[in-house]
Structures are given as C-alpha cells and as structure tokens.
UniProtKB/TrEMBL annotation:
Matches recorded under NCBIfam families: Grx4 family monothiol glutaredoxin
Protein family (similarity comment): Belongs to the glutaredoxin family. Monothiol subfamily.
Protein name: Glutaredoxin
Residues of the Glutaredoxin domain: 17-80
Species: Erythrobacter insulae
Signal peptide interval: none
Keywords for this protein: 2Fe-2S, Iron, Iron-sulfur, Metal-binding, Redox-active center
Amino-acid positions noted as binding [2Fe-2S] cluster in the UniProt annotation, renumbered to this chain: C30
Matching Pfam families: Glutaredoxin
GO molecular-function term, one example from the UniProt record: 2 iron, 2 sulfur cluster binding
InterPro entries xrefs: Glutaredoxin, GRX_PICOT-like, Monothiol_GRX, Monothiol_GRX-rel, Thioredoxin-like_sf
Length: 110
C-alpha cells in the first residue's frame, strides 16, 4: 500500500489538475466520469487523467488516499476537491472556474 500511496502522491504532485476516473477522457466508462470530463473540458483547463480500471491497486488506493469512497476524484494543485457531484455544484456556482483561475491552472491547448 505504501508503494501505491507514493505513486498516487507523485501523480497528484506532478500535475496541476488530476482526475482519477473510470475509463479515459475519450471513452469514459461511467456516467459520473463522463460528467467530470465534460466539466473539465468546459472549463478549458489542461488535466491529467488516471484510468483506475487499468490498475486495481490505484483503484482501491485512491479511496484510502483521499478518504473518499467513490470515483471519479478531482485534485487541483495537490488538493482533493471531491467527486462529480461536488464538481457539478462548484461548476454551476462558478466556484470551480474561479478556483482554477486563482490557482493559475494552465489552459488546455486548442
């Protein structure tokens, strides 16, 4: 488990925005992951995604790492924000875009 935590910590630390999800941005494997991708794409930020279906250790380890039971999980500048419901609430209130701007997150390349 220590190795998995180290791997997760490295991924979170090396990327401004990381989404641990089921599937990939092009082929999300659940509705919640699909919604999370749509929100991030709408915000126009660069992000890294991690397909937890490809790595069972990460799939279980991320739940322990964040103390959050569900996937997807969003991290911004090393800080855990929550899952797709929290992302949606923040997005609808304008808080997610504001946070991304305040944190100086890089915009996605067009």
């Amino acid at each position: 488990m220590a190795d998995t935590n180290t791997r997760i910590s490295t991924i979170v630390g090396e990327n401004d925005v990381v989404l641990f999800m089921k599937g990939t941005p092009l082929f999300p494997q659940c509705g919640f992951s699909s919604r999370a991708i749509a929100i991030l794409d709408h915000c126009g930020v660069a992000y890294e995604s991690v397909d937890v279906l490809q790595d069972m250790e990460v799939r279980q380890g991320i739940k322990t790492y964040s103390d959050w039971p569900t996937i997807p999980q969003l991290y911004v500048k090393g800080e855990f924000l929550g899952g797709s419901d929290i992302m949606m609430e923040m997005f609808e209130a304008g808080e997610l875009q504001q946070l991304l701007d305040e944190k100086g997150v890089a915009k996605a390349e067009s």
